[in-house]
């Protein structure tokens, strides 16, 4: 396999991607029911995943998603379907738990540089939800910034900003008001060409409105966003990556009604609690009734809010629940592919022996 730098620069920063001879590099810009739209140096194509890849796919994460870099076999005619032969390594991946009680993973997008965590400054404002978003974002590998929307709807901006800064660590906080042109300046200035951004946030916080503003005069493309962004009863699974006039790439994620927690980085997001816990008498302190609990002491001293601790516990419980189920899933996958752990080990040993 030769490494080659490909100039798909408009669809991502100029990186080195793996490319096998005979195949072309492409970026997945839309998916819908295992149909893909890809962009290559030869233009845009519809694509399908090669059967060979499908045979090995057992998990949602084994399939391409929006933002993925893939290696494709291009057809002679652009109207024919291309074949996705390989899925390149992901720099970042954003998963969410599928709705409901099962802890199955749904792949939202890959290779996102920035997650823009959106929260409205109206009745939607909820610092506990922001903690959840920050914890999930921290585990994705992408950087995150906080976008506070509907600034025109609040009279308590200063207090809200104080509350946000208390939980946001060093994440950048951007305030937007889509009712005024000037209200978009901060976000516009923040977004850079060839970097990939994904807006996350509950339904109605104004994500589509922000994207429409950023699209500016490109009303055609905006219309395309709206069409797949089905606000009606039929929830569509279509996602797409759109290019803004300034060259930034934006992943639109419709249907994010609830952000289920699958993987979270609580140590980073709750660094204050992690730090306090070092002084607990017991290493495995649950910070409930244990004697010598430094976290409870901080709550008693008014140093840490009870609500933040409750939020931390809630996310921790969700995460350990999912990790247990994740292990069971991993074992099931090993069973399917090798017939069991023992067989897998024997197989790996054989592979290593052959390589020598
Ligand atoms: N007052 C005010 N209203 C806004 C602002 N931004 C968006 N809205 C309104 O809020 C409503 C929801 O906005 P959308 O952009 O559709 O929200 P969304 O986050 O894309 O929602 P989903 O697509 O369901 O996830 C619309 O009626 C917008 O006009 C703002 O800055 N100020
Ligand atoms: Zn403790």
TrEMBL record:
CDD domains: YjeQ_EngC (cd01854). Keywords: Cytoplasm, GTP-binding, Hydrolase, Metal-binding, Nucleotide-binding, Ribosome biogenesis, RNA-binding, rRNA-binding, Zinc. PROSITE patterns: ENGC_GTPASE, G_CP. Its EC number is 3.6.1.-. InterPro entries: G_CP_dom (IPR030378), P-loop_NTPase (IPR027417), Ribosome_biogen_GTPase_RsgA (IPR004881), RsgA_GTPase_dom (IPR010914). It is found in: Cytoplasm. Gene3D superfamilies: P-loop containing nucleotide triphosphate hydrolases, Probable gtpase engc, domain 3. The keyword Glycosyltransferase does not apply. GO terms for biological process: ribosomal small subunit biogenesis. One of its GO terms (molecular function) is GTPase activity. Monomer. Associates with 30S ribosomal subunit, binds 16S rRNA. HAMAP family: GTPase_RsgA. PANTHER family: SMALL RIBOSOMAL SUBUNIT BIOGENESIS GTPASE RSGA. One of several proteins that assist in the late maturation steps of the functional core of the 30S ribosomal subunit. Helps release RbfA from mature subunits. May play a role in the assembly of ribosomal proteins into the subunit. Circularly permuted GTPase that catalyzes slow GTP hydrolysis, GTPase activity is stimulated by the 30S ribosomal subunit. This is Small ribosomal subunit biogenesis GTPase RsgA.
């Amino acid at each position: 396999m030769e490494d080659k730098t490909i100039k798909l620069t408009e669809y991502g920063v100029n990186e080195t991607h793996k490319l096998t001879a005979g195949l072309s590099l492409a970026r997945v810009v839309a998916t819908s029911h295992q149909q893909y739209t890809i962009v290559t140096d030869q233009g845009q194509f519809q694509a399908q995943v090669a059967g060979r890849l499908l045979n090995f796919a057992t998990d949602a994460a084994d399939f391409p998603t929006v933002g993925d870099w893939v290696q494709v076999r291009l057809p002679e005619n652009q109207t024919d379907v291309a074949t996705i032969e390989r899925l390149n390594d992901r720099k970042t991946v954003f998963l969410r738990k599928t709705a409901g009680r099962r802890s199955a993973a749904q792949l939202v997008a890959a290779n996102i540089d920035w997650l823009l965590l959106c929260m409205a400054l109206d009745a939607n404002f909820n610092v506990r939800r922001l903690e959840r978003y920050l914890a999930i974002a921290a585990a994705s590998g992408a950087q995150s910034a906080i976008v506070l929307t509907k600034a025109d709807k609040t009279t308590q901006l200063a207090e809200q900003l104080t509350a946000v800064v208390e939980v946001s660590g060093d994440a950048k906080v951007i305030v937007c008001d889509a009712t005024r042109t000037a209200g978009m300046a901060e976000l516009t200035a923040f977004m850079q060409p060839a970097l990939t951004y994904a807006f996350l946030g509950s339904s109605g916080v104004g994500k589509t409105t922000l994207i429409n503003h950023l699209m500016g005069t490109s009303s055609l493309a905006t219309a395309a966003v709206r069409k797949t962004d089905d606000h009606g009863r039929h929830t569509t699974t279509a996602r797409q990556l759109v290019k803004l006039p300034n060259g930034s790439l934006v992943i639109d994620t419709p249907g994010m009604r609830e952000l289920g927690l699958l993987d979270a980085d609580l140590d980073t997001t709750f660094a204050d609690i992690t730090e306090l816990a070092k002084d607990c008498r017991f290493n495995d302190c649950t910070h409930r009734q244990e004697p010598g609990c430094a976290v409870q002491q901080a709550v008693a001293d008014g140093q840490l809010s009870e609500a933040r601790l409750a939020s931390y516990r809630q996310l921790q419980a969700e995460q350990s629940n999912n990790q247990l189920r994740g292990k069971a899933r991993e074992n099931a996958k090993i069973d399917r592919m090798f017939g069991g752990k023992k067989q897998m080990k024997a197989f790996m040993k054989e592979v290593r022996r052959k390589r020598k």
